[in-house]
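Collaborator request, handled under Task 6.
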Amino acid sequence: MAGLSFWSAKTSTSSLAASFLSEGTAMPEAITLERARRDKEQGKSPSTQAGEFVREEIHHIREGKHGAANTKQAIAIGLSKARRAGVKLGTPKSGSASNRTRKQAQRDLAKGRRRSRTVSRKRSQASEKALKRQPRSAASRSALSRQATQAARRSSSASRSQAAKKAARTKGPAVRRRAAQKAAETRQRRAA
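Structure tokens returned to the collaborator:
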């Protein structure tokens, strides 16, 4: 096995599990790997594929497996898992993230391409213990909503509009119809 990329047909889930355990990172669930693989086959972007790992992290926090200092940390853990699993997600652009974050993303990408190495058990247990001490509120609906609003505010009006148009294009007729109904109900409720 040349790398840990879960896209290759030769990579088994057990070998991927072994590599994650040796790296000191919790193994992504099989269903998450399957969802991300399906996204790749459908030609969806790497950020969409990585979204499956972020979703899993949010669920882990909600289930009480561990916590996160804030929503950004929860997202960062998911993106790190995605990179280590072989999702070809680029590193953040210079200026958009700190040098430390960018270097960590590069390391995660490299780990996604190579064989696993054994990592100190003490270190991985310590990081897990630290996460367990963190609050669970980072995955609440209000925290996620706040994070999404802040992220959207950072992008320009034109890019937000472009994203909305693409979403409308790729939704499909049934989902688009339901969204239109919901919008109509919201307008009616606000008018009253």
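The cover message to the collaborator said: "Confidence is low (pLDDT under 50) at residues 1-24. DSSP finds nine helices and no strands in the chain. Please let us know whether this matches your experimental observations."
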